[in-house]
Amino acid sequence: MPPPTQPPPPSPDDAEPSVAREMDDEDLVEELLVTVNSARAFAEFRRTQRKECANLLRWLQLVLPLLEELRDAAPRLTDDAYRRLALLGRALSAARRLLRSCNDGSKIYLALECETVLAKFRSVYEKMHSALDGLPYAELAISDEVKEQVELMNAQLMRSRKRTDTQDMELSMDIMVILQNNEEERNADRAILERLAKKLELQTLAELRAETKAIKKIINERNGQQADSTKQIIDLLNRFKEIAGIDEKNVLGDVSMPKSLDKCPSLLIPNDFLCPITLEIMTDPVIVASGQTYERRSIQKWLDSGERTCPKSRQPLAHLSLAPNYALKNLILQWCEKNMVELQKREPEPAAGEQEDNKRKEDIPSLVDGLSSIHPDVQRKAVKKLRMLSKESPENRQLIADGGGIPALIGLLASTDKKVQENTVTSLLNLSIDDKNKLLITRGGAIPLIIEILRHGSPEAQENSAATLFSLSMIDENKAAIGSLGGLTPLVELLRSGTARGKKDAATAIFNLVLTPQNKARATHAGVVPALLGVIDDKALGMVDEALSIFLLLSSHAACRAEIGTTAFVEKLVRLIKDGTPKNKECALSVLLELGTNSKPLLVHGLRFGLHEDLSKIAKNGTSRAQRKANSLITLARKL
């Protein structure tokens, strides 16, 4: 359990001496849940931000249990708790905007502004970390399991906001060369342009049309500002069209540009005209049973995913009928006409990309049937496609599950074909994102087969098997099942000798599993202690905090503490307290306090290395959590 760090000084927006409560406690929590769920609806992202979006989605998934427990317990929020949750709400709203931008924003813009967008992700991590750090779990009636999970997530958030990842250097250089070359040199750029177009996925007519619409949106938002940047974006788009053989010089193609850009420089769209789900101006507003209004296509997608509540109010819907809101639609049309804003027309036929998506969804039943084919080639192709489809959207996952895909996939886990195993377990990992599928996967007998792949599969299959066990272990009954079926032994082996990614997946799964007492003993018997010591010693791996978090959980169990509590391990903790990062110090202090409380000789041994001075410094200048741990150790030492 990584203890949270002291939050950075609040920004002017966040530093409020008294809390102005804009909504009731329950409404605030419901608003947070709605924001998280709507943000998690985005599944496809631009290549340049795909990795960061995946990280952010993982954080959002992990914060859900906290919000759900808050909703169920409905505690009265203190001013501090309300302020933190309000700050979390701002962070989650910013996360949703970021994910949406990376989902349907201009690929060219996102590539050109890669570092700027990365800074926005860092800002979201900073706000989430500040909101969750020091959250008063006890007074909020949060369970120990959820508390441990959130604190581990917060440690990872802190590390993520400090990462110094940079953009794809080849991509950056290609863009720079293209933008700097003059007209006479353009013919020499074709190879670079083709490479760029492939990397940015701007090669087909459908992709270029979608990019054109995204650029139109940027032009609207900028209102004539940042002219040089806009010109670069338009120039690149036109050149991509040239190499694709599209004879179209107008950046907007068949999408007309609103004249309002010149005549309405400070255009503000009334909030009532925006769909609460997409935050876009509505073209076909409809009213649901709760009385809220949404864009028809957006709310229909929400309902089709199995939801039966109002996204905004979270009220259960008495019926699923959608009533056209003619009054609001007329107001929107009048406003658009007055401000010369052209609403996006709904095409009578779906765009090429949409047709392709629909066709793939129509293929799902035949692909599920293909899993049971007697022909290995048919099985291989079917499971490969289902792996891709199960990653794309909640709708695809529901179609696969409803079509009997989960039992068929479980049947393929025993395949002797390593690639089939890898694609199968990864498909189940994708499907397990949805909670109801976790139960279907477990009850279908998948856990022993996933453990077997964890033992003998390909490196990628082992990594994804560990990730699948972590996902399934989010359900408490599965923690015990995975432990009793022998899942901890191969996880420990992956932690000891797997790839860097495999070790991270194994550590996350082990942490979640040893939240139960029985699994603490099983993990220790499987050799988790020497494996974790190896992780701590591997500085390049950067997993010291995760290893110490697992040690902290294990040290609360008497049998495990007997193996952990050695003088050599105490000396390792002392070195981390003296020379580690602030987070290392917090985690090491927590473990030492747990061990020293139960074994005075171990604490005495640690104090022999001049620890008094370090504890005094941390008690004065350390982070808030480290200060508390250091003071507790000082008090304990005085009693010896």
UniProtKB/TrEMBL annotation:
* Top-level class of the enzyme under EC nomenclature: transferase
Name the Enzyme Commission number(s) assigned to this protein. 2.3.2.27
* Pathway linked to the protein: Protein modification; protein ubiquitination
A Pfam family this chain is assigned to: ARM_PUB
Q: Name one GO molecular function term.
A: ubiquitin protein ligase activity
Question: InterPro entries from the xrefs?
Answer: Adaptor_Cbl_N_dom_sf, ARM-like, ARM-type_fold, ARM_PUB, Armadillo, PUB12-19-like_N, RING-Ubox_PUB, Ubox_domain
Q: Tell me the ranges holding the ARM repeats.
A: 404-446, 445-487
Name of this chain's protein: RING-type E3 ubiquitin transferase
Tell whether Transferase is among the UniProt keywords: yes
